Amino acid sequence: MKTHILVAAFLASTASLAAHAAVRAEGEPVRVFLSNGFKAAFDDLAPTCERSLGRSITLQSGTSTSLTQRVNAGEAFDVAIMTTEAMDDLGKAGKVSARTPLGRSGIGIGSRAGAKKPDIANADALKKTFLASKAVTYAGDGASRPHIARMMTTLGIAEAMTKKTILEQGSVRSAAKVASGDAELLITLISEILPAPGVELVGPLPMQFQNYVSFAAATGVKAANAAVGKSLISCLSGPGVAATLKAKGMEKP
């Protein structure tokens, strides 16, 4: 009799632990790796998505380059939101599932809040503004860097601007350089300029130099919350997000 009681107690305890684990897993936060370029839009959309999912979101943000390194190092995540190029590379490496396009942003110029906005209307004006500046800054590991480098070469001022350029890790640090007065101009995605404290958007680059960086989302192939991750991606890519994207300097793909 005692043996039956002990067995019954053991089975009950095991069932209780299993149920507790299931409930805990069901309520685990969705772990997201988020590129800086999509962060402003994500921050606005996240509360609605959290309510829809019934889950909280834990966020790790940075450049797509730095986040790719973390994925390749084996860090756990449920959803990755990065540039389409980075997502394609991770897909080929078998790290993420098929990607879903989210939005794109053009490159712009930012200056210190309250400062007189320089002329960037065309190539000649842009060239004069760059050469007259104390310093310009942008992310050395950012997705827009190759486009900026080509622009400087086309303008014929690549060598001259080398002495005036402050490269930072990520647009957040670059923006801080402009807010503090260490640099006059920030060159990065418009979606990264608009939310930057102490910085104001001067405007987009002239069309001959304009380039767009697109962002996409995918779940990790080893995601613990893959189903919820897919629901989050659906929330971020639905028809109702267009107005938020526009307000944050982005547009639907």
Can you offer a commentary on this structure?
The chain is of the alpha/beta class. It folds into two domains: 27-104 and 214-247, Periplasmic binding protein-like II (D-Maltodextrin-Binding Protein, domain 2); 106-212, D-Maltodextrin-Binding Protein, domain 2 (3-Layer(aba) Sandwich). The chain has helices at residues 2-26, 36-53, 64-72, 84-92, 123-132, 145-155, 158-162, 171-180, 190-193, 226-237, 242-247, and strands at 30-35, 57-62, 79-83, 100-112, 136-139, 165-168, 185-189, 199-204, 212-219. Strands 1, 2, 3, 4, 5, 6, 7, 8 and 9 form a nine-stranded mixed β-sheet that branches. The longest helix has 25 residues, at 2-26. It is elongated and about 55 Å long. The termini are far apart.
Can you tag this structure with a few keywords?
253 residues; elongated; 47% helix; D-Maltodextrin-Binding Protein, domain 2; disordered N terminus; 9-stranded mixed sheet; alpha/beta
Low-confidence stretches: 1-25
Question: What fraction of residues sit in β-strands?
Answer: 15-25%
What is the name of the CATH topology of the largest domain?
D-Maltodextrin-Binding Protein, domain 2
CATH superfamily of the largest domain: Periplasmic binding protein-like II
Please give the number of β-strands.
Answer: 9
* Head-to-tail CA distance between termini: 69 Å
Domains, number: 2
- CATH class value of the largest domain: Alpha Beta
> SS-based structural class?
alpha/beta
SS field, number of helical segments: 11
Question: What is Rg?
Answer: 23 Å
Assembly state of the chains shown: single chain
Helix proportion of residues, in percent? 40-55%
**What order do the helices and strands follow?**
HEHEHEHEHEHHEHEHEEHH
Let me know the largest β-sheet: 9 strands, mixed
Which overall shape is indicated by the principal axes computed on the Cα atoms?
Answer: elongated
Overall pLDDT metric: 90
What's the CATH architecture name of the largest domain?
3-Layer(aba) Sandwich
